Amino acid sequence: MQRGHTPVLLHEALERLSVEPGGLYVDGTLGLAGHAAELLRRSAPDGRLLGLDRDGETLARAAETLRPFGTRVHLAQADFREAEQHLAGARPNGVLLDLGVNSVQLDSPERGFSFRFEGPLDMRLDRSRGVSAADVVQHLREDELADVIYRFGEEPASRRIARAIVAARQSQALTTTLALAEVVRRAAPRARRPGLDPATRTFQALRIHVNGELERLGDAMKHLAALLAEDGRLVVIAFHSLEDREVKHAFRALAAEGPFELLERRAVRPGDEELARNPRARSARLRALRRLRADEERDPRARSYSRRLAARRPDGRDEDEHDDASDARQEAA
Predict the structure, then answer these.
(1) In this structure, are residues 231 and 93 in contact, taking their beta carbons and an 8 Å threshold?
(2) What does the pLDDT look like over 214-233, one tens digit per residue?
(3) Which CATH number is associated with domain 109-211?
(4) Which residues lie across from 233 on neighbouring strands?
């Protein structure tokens, strides 16, 4: 495991994946391979892993971590939405997604994800392609910027912040993290949540926009679920309400339509012990889905139970509704 990297909800994720020897598993957001390494240990001696990540630099680090597992591992620089083409017809027993950015990306000033360090305003998960956050900040119209900040950051002061950014860039290009953070802090009111930097939501919004993190996310959940073998599991860890909402609604639709079931109605959250070890885990929430076996599909009792578990409460509210829209990985340590 990489120094300084602590995989979030590790045991909870692997328990719900029901890892066994001989299985085929996909880690679609490989990161620093903390989850993947433990998955390979639990699936020894012949369990296999397909590891995908958009970030080539992170993928190289992960390859070193997973080198001891030899030919049981296949890695590719790709988005998890492209998993099917790398599986070549094979049906995985489990798929794991840990959405967002990892600790090394967040703590590397040159990546531009954090307002805690001076660095180029980049934020791309794959630095070989696409536009950077600096391009977005410099070229979007004021109304477009406001929409991005409101939609992806759920920032009430989005219009005020966008107006301040446009005014600031007229005199000097905003190309660094600290320059942007200073403009946002002057424009945004003090956060209601103690310890939350006023720039948090804007940085989250830009990162999501730059990387298209919410594009077709719900559809991707349905596509990945359809790839699963019988009794296969899809486990997703999210770090802010926007992506978690997409996952939750997709999972409920799948459980209602079949042949899938939710493993829990409510999201799994980190316990006190994990939070004491790793405060960045505080916004994490895990959801898990299982593909039914053929004999269960034919059993109306199993299908009825799955539909009841997927249903909303009689009053129309979600049992695990929350109003925390911030991403813990973007908060100041």
Answers:
(1) yes
(2) 999 999 999 999 999 999 99
(3) 1.10.150.170
(4) 94, 290
